[in-house]
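User: Fold this; tokens only.

Assistant: Input:
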Amino acid sequence: MMSDDEVIAAIIDILVRNEPDIISAALRGGLSGERLGRVAPNAFGYIVETLQSDLDASSGTGEIHLPDEAYANGDIATAVPVLGAGAWRFLVAHVKGEQRIAMSRVADRFFAAVYRLERAIVAGLMDESRQSSPGLDRRGAIAEALIAGRPLPEAGLVDGSATDGYVTICIGFSSGVDRRACLHRLAVAPRWQHVLPAFQEQDLVLIVPLDVPTAAQEITAIARETLAEMKIGPMPAGVAYALTDDGVSEAVEEARMIMQVARSLDYPHPYVLEDVCVEALLVRSPDLAARLGQRLEPLAARGGYLLDTLRAYIASGRRRVETATRLHIHPNTLDYRLRKVKTLTGLSITSVRDVQTLSVGLVAWQLYDQSGDD
């Protein structure tokens, strides 16, 4: 009767001899995508090495020694459990007789080894000390080169593939938020492990290579999905698109400017420039923002409720009943407050031009008020 160690040794031999067939079956049955296909041979090799370390230790506590690139590529963490399950299905389908009965005895040991490998890779991705591994260093070097407008190092992107442009995202982190932990959560997500990160002061720049042409309206959606994967909650972020490598530097600057606008106005979501054109103009023209903001000072001097009323009225599309309902006041009270706005500012809510001035003035007031120039 075969011992458990002899069964594990036999399993390793079967896996090594049938590696191409097992990987092909996994690619057809769950390990989809060109990028995962490229890492499958390495991931399969790590499974075999882990089983061997288990056999060497004869107790399931053997050391796992993996190259740094295993920890630098989230695709590996995704591929390992799929290949492990695929390898076991292959064994069940092809091993017969007494050897198959013996194999069933070590099923728990087999899957424990696969899980131990997956856990080690994920732990490595989450380990800040591994930020200096070659894979992560290379992605950082690529990001820095793109931002600076320098030629890409060596073969270019991490996986060597061409791109159809980049989405650049600049995230303005609040104090106390662990940026590296957020980045690590992104690194283990299957869709985002090829994002190129760059830490710049308190901000994080993410450069997302695209493998298909992307319409402008999809860019913000990509940014929202990225931030959601990082589980960082509402946070100001600027988003811009670059069609080529040469355009990344300019796109990052645009994204950073948008993020600064969003941070100044407490806008807690990703925005593209088209979303915040007026706000960007005011941020770039502080004297104009201050002058417009001063027009609303008399409203603020009355305790701020007139500013809140004006803001709600404009946000509702100047619908009287809707505004009154939102503010929990009688429509007649709303009318009185709006007349007060005209008296104090000289701007009427019945004039299209004046409403434009009031609307932009509310944004300017927020910038002006935050500047401390009361």
